[in-house]
Amino acid sequence: MMNCRDATRLISEAQEQPLSIAERVSLKLHVIICSGCQNFNDQLGTLRLMTRAYAKEKTSTLICKDNTRPMDKS
């Protein structure tokens, strides 16, 4: 059975790269029975969504600022 240290490592790694089938199955089984790792997985997912939304907002703000700048007359 997977321990919490390995589970949190795999949860984090899964954000960057695909896990093997064996890793996904082991992780899924562990997360089903471990409320601490369930919380970690949920929190990491929420954090990822929030950072993506923030980055998207920042990007669109920068684009708007670029489009509203007065053009040079040269």
Describe the protein in words.
The protein is mainly α. It has one domain. 77% of the residues lie in helices and 0% in strands. The protein has three helices and no strands. The relative contact order is 0.11. The mean pLDDT is 87.
Oligomer: single chain
C-alpha Rg (nearest Å) = 20 Å
* Low-pLDDT runs: none
Q: Helix and strand string, N-terminal first? A: HHH
The number of helical segments is 3
Give the DSSP E fraction (strand runs of 2 or more residues): under 5%
Helix % is: over 70%
| Total strands | 0
Q: Tell me the major beta sheet.
A: none
What shape does the CA trace take?
elongated
What is the end-to-end distance? 69 Å
User: Structural class per helix/strand content?
Assistant: mainly alpha
Mean pLDDT: 87
How many individual domains?
A: 1
Chain-wise SSE layout:
Elements: H1 4-13, H2 21-33, H3 35-68
Task: Provide key terms for this protein.
3 helices; single chain; 74 residues; mainly alpha; 0% strand
Offer a concise description of the structure:
This protein is mostly helical and about 70 residues long. The protein has 3 helices and no strands. The protein has helices spanning about 5-15, 20-35, 35-70.
